[in-house]
Amino acid sequence: MLKKMLVLFVAFVFIAGCPSESENEGEKVWGENGGEVENGGTQEYLDIQEGSSSQAASGTGGNGEDVETTPAIEYSEDVNGNLFIYFINVGYGDIQGDAILVKKGDFDMVIDGGADAKKHEVVNFLFEKGVDDIEVLVSTHEDPEHEGGLGYIGENFRIGEVWRPAEGSEGYGQMLESLGAENGVKYLGRGDERTFNGIRMLVRNPLLGNERFFDSDNDAIVLRLEDRGFCTLLTSDIDGSAQTQILMDSAPCEVVQMPWHGMSEGLSSLDFFFDKLEPEAVIISGSSKDWTNTRQTVFNKAELRGIEVYPNYEGESAKVTFNGNEYSITIEE
Q1: Residue 264 burial (CB count, 10 A)
Q2: Within a 10 A sphere around the Cβ of 175, how many other Cβ atoms?
Q3: How many CB atoms lie within 10 A of CB 35?
Q4: pTM for this entry
Q5: Least confident among 14-23, 72-81, 244-253
Q6: How many domains in the chain?
Q7: Does residue 249 lie within any of the structural domains?
Q8: Within a domain: residue 251?
Q9: Do 196 and 277 lie in a common domain?
Q10: 11 or 97: whose pLDDT is higher?
């Protein structure tokens, strides 16, 4: 009898001493389809919860222990580092959409989040590019194809602050507030200017107060990014009305995102657009589907002016790289 009790006691000690699955968390993450992958790897959809930056924002670790955190708005300065701008491919079918990552050193800025149906791809892309937290999250305007994935981004990343235009419904505002940005939600308009890690960010749209269009597309946030003499203009979904207001006093810019995904509504001022900005290259973001049959106009007029055209729907993303002296644009497969 004593021998049997001793065996049971040893077995109990052995079982109690084995690490539980939760103690091994951090070594593996689980895909939504139940697949197991090594931490830092990728699978079709990663449901990253333990140790995610959004959880770190609460001040608790994976085991519920208090941990020291720094504000998401803080980052390591590297003003001489490479600037990367990724136009993430979030278009599908007739859905165009935008999701853009601006990255320089430890500074990460995300502009729009694509449609809800593409939210997993966007979050996985950000993790793959080494995004730890998001200093600035910009919602250019209320449009499901641009802001549909923002909620999921907020679930997976700590956010320093959110930028938005004045135009938008009450529900849109509540969604942006729910992202839990540490420095809150800020309304931006023409004339606002910020600098992060050597990147000068000038807000070119929307107009302020009663001068705005009271239209979601034309009151979208347009950003001019300048870094060591290099310029990129991000135009969202503005059409000819807002373009005219912006372009009247615009300086040339090397790389320009075509407004309205390079289609119909965004092309009504195309010649004026090219004349004022004098771009060397333009990005068309969205889907390969052109139901308006107008996108070829961009290619034709750009070719006549010697402007290179890069559509992000030809690969995973269109990547702009600037090293302080020269820039390049590649389509990532």
Answers
A1: 16
A2: 18
A3: 12
A4: 0.81
A5: 14-23
A6: 2
A7: yes
A8: yes
A9: yes
A10: 97
Q: Which amino acid is at 307?
A: I
Query: Mind listing the pLDDT tens digit for each residue in 275-292?
Result: 999 999 999 999 999 999
Q: Does residue 30 register a pLDDT over 90?
A: no
Side chain identity, residue 282: V
| Confidence band for 262, pLDDT divided at 50, 70 and 90 | very high
Classify 79 as helix, strand or coil. Answer: coil
The letter for the amino acid at 149 is: G
Structural domain for 39, as ranges: 24-69
326 plus 280 within the same structural domain: yes
Nearest to 108 by CA among 20, 24, 197: 197
**pLDDT tens digits along 171-216:** 999 999 999 999 999 999 999 999 999 999 999 999 988 899 999 9
CATH number of the domain bearing residue 252: 3.60.15.10
Tell whether 34 and 117 lie within a shared domain: no
Q: Do 157 and 219 fall into the same domain?
A: yes
Residues 115, 225: Cα–Cα separation, whole Å: 24
35 and 92 in a common domain:
no
Pair 248, 127 in one domain = yes
Residue at 217: amino acid letter: D
Is 84 a residue whose pLDDT tops 50? yes
Please say whether the beta carbons of 30 and 36 come within 8 A: yes
CA distance 274 to 304: 11
Q: List strand residue ranges (DSSP E) for the chain, in order.
A: 28-30, 36-38, 83-88, 100-104, 107-111, 134-138, 159-164, 185-187, 193-196, 199-205, 222-227, 230-234, 255-257, 281-284, 308-311, 317-322, 327-332
pLDDT at 61: 44
H helix or E strand, kind and range, residue 89 = none
CB 155 within 8 A of CB 56: no
